[in-house]
Write a structure and sequence with these properties.
By secondary structure, this protein is α+β, with helices and mostly antiparallel strands. The protein contains 9 helices and 19 strands.
């Protein structure tokens, strides 16, 4: 329990941001015996109703330390991939991977509550209503000034806050690509059971996804800003008619739309995920297009690797060698995750890069070549392989 032996007032790791990535890291470190402060600007749990898609690997990791909200999760047993206006389709099934599910959907709020409970059980000190007012980094310590006037000193500072405080870190900046689209999200019912199937539908206007959630489905529909505004302004009947026309009837007839909202789509990467006494993880380090559901899973792999790097540092938490080791271990997965989602958006959204017949041929070939399907599923579940 060497982390508990820190000098009075000095914490091993201070984590800014108590979302799924920050709470997962805090739990892993707390269970390993390190002293951890988890700092969250919000006054309490977010209660966010968004639907998250987690891979089988992310499920297994959380299940190991008792943080998986099984009662609130829906398994994804197959993924159907197709394109509108062209031939070809691919069906990826969990059975091909020897798995019960390729992944799961779960409400953000349910996952958040389960992870916070696990963090407390691991001895993590959680501070809500603790916004970061300033950051000072030295060779020996990272200092976080809170809005209350308290200063938290730690050997290592971790930003897991979606990027809210990245600008406070010298030498760290964002590289961004604006896709010029918004993602419309909503909950819809269908007239046939989804049987655990997720749908990925590529259209000339952008990709659409339908994810199983309980006995309903979560919709993600990408569109240009003007088109997104028009779709959001439609009444339920007109919205469903356009959704049915774009998506087809492969998932059944849609009804009862609820909770429509939209958010802009950008690719955003930090130029480096480490700085003096600082590591940057999750959406603070990389924010991806939601296609293929890679963003949160990538962030959870950040958390797992950072916990491993801290354990391997032999007490030198926050040291330059430890941070370099973490950066090198994550570089391949992070860059390939960003490149993978960006390629899918570009290749299936721009006929100049890949014509309709070419996309159809690729989907058909993937469907009949089992090793290729398994390789794609493995990539989606576990990320880029370690060299």
């Amino acid at each position: 329990m060497r982390g508990r032996e820190a000098p009075a007032g000095l914490t091993d790791v201070a984590i800014v941001g108590a979302g799924p990535v920050g709470a997962t890291l805090a739990t892993l470190l707390g269970r390993a015996g390190h002293s951890v402060r988890l700092l969250e600007a919000k006054a309490g749990p977010s209660g966010d109703a968004r639907t998250l898609a987690l891979s089988a690997a992310s499920h297994d990791r959380m299940d190991e330390f008792g943080a998986w909200p099984a009662a609130a999760a829906t398994p994804i047993r197959s993924i159907h991939i197709s394109q509108r206006g062209g031939p070809g389709r691919t069906l990826i099934e969990a059975a091909d991977q020897g798995l019960a599910a390729l992944g799961y959907t779960v409400a953000f709020s349910a996952l958040e509550a389960s992870l916070h409970e696990a963090a407390r059980a691991a001895g993590v000190q959680m501070d809500f209503g603790a916004p970061c007012a300033g950051i000072e980094l030295t060779d020996a310590v990272a200092r976080v000034s809170l809005g209350s006037g308290e200063t938290v000193e730690a050997r290592l500072l971790v930003l897991a806050d979606g990027g809210a405080n990245v600008a406070r870190i010298p030498g760290v900046a964002f590289i961004e690509k604006d896709y010029g689209q918004l993602a419309i999200v909503a909950s819809v019912a269908t007239d046939r059971p989804h049987a655990g199937r997720a749908w990925e539908r590529f259209t000339p206007q952008g990709p659409m996804a339908l994810l199983p959630v309980g006995d309903r489905c979560a919709l993600v529909w990408t569109a240009a800003p003007g088109e997104a505004s028009r779709l959001l302004a439609l009444d339920d009947r007109a919205f469903l008619a356009e959704l049915q026309e774009r998506f087809g009837d492969r998932a059944g007839r849609f009804s009862a739309p609820a909770a429509r909202a939209a958010f802009p789509l950008r690719l955003r990467l930090v130029n480096t995920p480490v700085a003096l006494r600082t590591a940057i993880v999750g959406n603070a380090a990389q924010a991806l297009h939601p296609i293929a559901g890679q963003g949160l899973n990538l962030g959870l792999r950040d958390a797992a690797q950072l916990a491993d790097s801290i354990e391997a540092a032999s007490g030198q938490i926050g040291s330059l060698p430890m941070l370099d080791a973490y950066r090198d271990a994550r570089r391949r997965d992070a860059l390939r995750g960003a490149a993978f989602t960006d390629f899918l958006v570009s290749a299936f959204g721009d006929s100049r890069l890949l014509p309709t017949w070419g996309r159809g041929l690729a989907l058909a070939a993937l469907d009949v070549i089992a090793p290729a399907r398994r390789m794609l599923a493995e990539r989606m579940i576990h990320g880029a392989p370690t060299p």
